[in-house]
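Q: What residues go here?
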């Protein structure tokens, strides 16, 4: 069993739900990464605003560190909950403001914490 180290990602008591996802190979991502999904494959990647494969739409937040540098990896992602903006990893071209409303519509609340 690994040691729990708080990271301040969870920022409130809005109900948290998670699901298993497949993180596409070629990435090393940390807990709190904002993910999109490639439409053709259904695999999750770090959401970047310039993408044109569906992954430009922020959909979920990675719940654990993932090393998918060589192969696809099954991981857990949050699909609802309340999260601290300071603890998120946001892809190129996105800002907290550009992902806040799309995630909110999915049940993910992003808040600034002190």
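A:
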């Amino acid at each position: 069993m690994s040691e729990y180290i708080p990271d301040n990602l969870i920022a409130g008591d809005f109900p948290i739900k998670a699901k298993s996802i497949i993180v596409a190979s070629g990435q090393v991502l940390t807990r709190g990464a904002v993910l999109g999904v490639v439409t053709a494959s259904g695999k999750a990647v770090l959401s970047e605003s310039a993408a044109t494969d569906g992954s430009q739409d922020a959909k979920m937040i990675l719940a654990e560190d993932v090393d998918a540098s060589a192969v696809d990896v099954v991981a857990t992602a949050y699909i609802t909950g309340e999260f601290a903006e300071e603890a998120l990893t946001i892809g190129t071209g996105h800002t907290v403001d550009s992902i806040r409303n799309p995630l909110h519509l999915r049940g993910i609340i992003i808040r600034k914490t002190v």
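A: Context that may help when evaluating the design: The first helix runs from residue 96 to 105. The chain has one domain: 18-111.
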